[in-house]
Amino acid sequence: MEYNVIKDAKNILNNSSYVVKNPQSNKNRWMQAFGNKNPIHLELGMGRGEFIIEMAKKYPKINFIGLELNESQTATAVQKLVSKNIPNLKLICGNASDIATMFGKEIDTIYLTFSEPWPKPIDEKKRFTHESYLKLYDRVFKKNKHIILKTDNKGLFQYSLETLSQYWYTFKRVSLDLYNDENPISNLPTDWEIKCVKDGKPIYYLDARFDE
Ligand SMILES: C[S@@+](CC[C@H](N)C(=O)[O-])C[C@H]1O[C@@H](n2cnc3c(N)ncnc32)[C@H](O)[C@@H]1O
């Protein structure tokens, strides 16, 4: 995926009250950071933030955190938030592989939205549904595990169905064409998803859970 480069991205991030500059210091303290005991939902690889911002606006009783590796992408999300007051939203510019340093057992739901598919076998470990990531998620899920995944990549979707079921997740919903499903699924689109839908691509969706 190509990204627009924002020259002063670092500055934009530093000056935004939405961006948590040292997320490690909030580990086991996110409830205090939000000032309430509401559930916490985390999106990994939020890109330009369309999904997490709109989710936070729609569900004020849920706390949302968008995490993104790329500074310019995160800065674009920040720019969408200028003069908006969304107290249940925070952003992190960081690596998904570091989430166990940022969170204790505090997360209720993880969204994996149009994650990089990493199709080459040599890159398998980088896929967000590789077993090593599923083990990482175990360290941050509060009790029950809940993953919502959306992708336009069939290979990543098939792979994720396999790894999640091998890891004892069960599927509450699976759709091979989210926008044309017989039983509509409540959904807000990501930036990438908007483009895929315009291009007429089917969106694959799964809602996976593991209840203790
Ligand atoms: C294809 S884009 C999708 C962005 C967004 N979820 C959407 O649907 O519009 C994948 C995003 O994941 C981010 N990403 C890739 N590896 C990451 C990592 N290890 N940690 C955090 N973000 C990552 C990329 O920078 C990119 O913004």
Brief digest:
The chain is α/β, with parallel strands linked by helices and 212 residues long.
Characterise the protein shown here.
This protein has helices at residues 9-14, 30-34, 50-58, 71-80, 99-102, 131-140, 154-166, 191-198; strands spanning 40-44, 63-68, 89-93, 109-113, 145-151, 170-175, 204-210. With 212 residues, the protein is of the alpha/beta class. It has one domain: Vaccinia Virus protein VP39 (Rossmann fold), CATH 3.40.50. It has a seven-stranded mixed β-sheet with strand order 3-2-1-4-5-7-6, sandwiched between helices. Strand 4, helix 6 and strand 5 form a beta-alpha-beta unit. The protein is globular. The model has no long low-confidence stretch (mean pLDDT 97). The structure holds S-adenosylmethionine. S-adenosylmethionine is lined by residues 1, 44-47, 67-70, 73, 95-97, 113-116, 190-193.
Order of helices and strands: HHEHEHEHEHEHEHE
Mean pLDDT metric? 97
Low-confidence residue ranges = none
The name of the CATH superfamily reads: Vaccinia Virus protein VP39
**How many beta-strand segments?**
7
Beta percentage is 15-25%
Helix/sheet category: alpha/beta
Number of domains: 1
CATH-derived topology: Rossmann fold
Q: Which architecture name does CATH use?
A: 3-Layer(aba) Sandwich
Largest sheet: 7 strands, mixed
